[in-house]
Write a structure and sequence with these properties.
- The protein is of the alpha/beta class and 304 residues long.
- Among the domains are: 75 residues, GMP Synthetase, Chain A, domain 3 (2-Layer Sandwich); 121 residues, no CATH class.
- The chain has 9 helices and 14 strands.
- The strands form 5 sheets. The protein has a 4-stranded mixed sheet with strand order 8-9-14-11. Strands 3-4-5 form a 3-stranded mixed sheet, covered by helices on one side. A 3-stranded antiparallel sheet has the order 10-13-12, covered by helices on one side.
- Strand 1 and strand 2 form a beta hairpin.
- Helix 5 packs across helix 9 and helix 7 packs antiparallel against helix 9.
- The longest helix has 20 residues.
- The protein is globular and about 65 Å long.
- Bound molecules: S-adenosylmethionine (SAM).
- The site of S-adenosylmethionine has 13 residues, from loops.
- S-adenosylmethionine binds next to loops.
- One of its GO terms (biological process) is methylation.
- GO terms for molecular function: methyltransferase activity.
- Keywords: Methyltransferase, Transferase.
- This is Methyltransferase domain-containing protein.
């Protein structure tokens, strides 16, 4: 289903059989993870129960109708995912939300300047909070996790210092951030399409930089975290193959519309942006994703 930030999110649409109660989102997630072996990133973040699936004129499930119904009525299946902890990180892999994992004696606070999209759940305290300007308690948290926020903030280094100070001594900070400077085209329909893709990526880098982003923040974060006093810095880069079906490709296609004016300021025409959308929808499109870095660091126990 469409998502304003990521382009798309996964929604499970469940049609119930007569007399059989639908699974809860947690039961469905457990089944998909443990029985069907879905990757964490493939698990549903939204959930919609229907009496039956909508069919098109040919008798097949009508995906467009389902997407519309999901956009109107789906409920969150779990909080907006933070970077899926992988088996290599020191955070154990799980689809349990942080609020469930801390148990009855712990607390989890989720913040954003626009917190409306953070799904509510027991044990989760949601606060509207500007990480640049609003007060932040010191030495309060065992774990602080931020995904794809500092990249956009011109004040990212000062914010990083604040996040470090918000950790208890011994606490862990995890940043999940993109480096969008790497993402080569692999297979394009023709050389002109390759040039267009590269022109588009270069314009995106320029417009984000102009807006104050550090487009390579993912690769810069480990050194910045060390400079901020964290120890045991553990950077984990990840990249994927991008095809026309990839959520990341839907996201950059979405950029051609919601960032249209800024692409035009960077010299792209509406014709080129339309051609980029056509290219990104081409079944033969193959590119390397940008790089996502998950970086952990620990606040020293004895020092500042
Ligand atoms: C790319 S989205 C990432 C959302 C979410 N962290 C995730 O990974 O799904 C960037 C988020 O940063 C939030 N944001 C931007 N400036 C902020 C600020 N000064 N303080 C707190 N949140 C901010 C935006 O509202 C938006 O939700």
């Amino acid at each position: 289903m469409p998502d304003p930030d990521l382009g798309e999110r996964v929604c499970a649409c469940v049609a119930v059989s007569d007399g059989v109660p639908p699974p809860t989102p947690a039961q469905l997630t457990t089944y998909l993870r443990d029985e069907r072996r879905l990757e964490p990133r493939e698990l549903p973040e939204h959930y919609l129960v229907l009496p039956e699936l909508p069919l098109g004129p040919t008798g097949k499930v009508c995906a467009a109708t389902l997407v519309r119904m999901a956009a109107e009525s789906a409920v969150p299946a779990r909080p907006v995912p933070h970077a899926p902890p992988t088996e290599e990180t020191s955070v154990p892999p799980t689809t349990e939300t942080p609020a469930r994992r801390v148990g009855p004696t712990g607390t989890v606070v989720a913040t954003d300047i626009k917190p409306e999209r953070i799904p509510d759940e027991p044990g989760l305290e949601i606060r509207r909070h500007d990480i640049v300007r609003d007060p932040l308690p010191e030495a309060e948290f065992d774990l602080v996790h931020a995904r794809l926020v500092l990249l956009h903030l011109p004040e990212r280094v000062a914010v990083l210092d604040r996040l470090v100070r918000a950790l208890k001594p011994g606490g862990v900070l995890q940043l999940d951030e993109f480096d969008i400077t790497y993402g080569p085209a692999l297979l394009m329909p023709d050389p002109a399409a390759r040039r267009l893709y590269e022109t588009f990526l270069a314009a995106k880098i320029r417009l984000m930089t102009r807006a104050g982003a550090d487009v390579a923040w993912g690769r810069n974060a480990p050194a910045a975290m060390r400079a901020a006093g964290l120890t045991g810095i553990d950077p984990r880069p990840r990249l994927d193959l991008w095809t026309a079906d990839s959520p990341g490709v839907h996201l950059i296609s979405h950029h051609t519309r919601h960032l249209r004016d800024r692409f035009v300021e960077e010299g792209m025409t509406d014709r080129q942006l339309a051609d980029v959308r056509t290219l990104l929808a081409d079944p033969g499109f193959r590119a390397t994703s940008c790089v996502m870095y998950s970086v952990q660091g620990r606040r020293p126990v004895a020092a500042g």
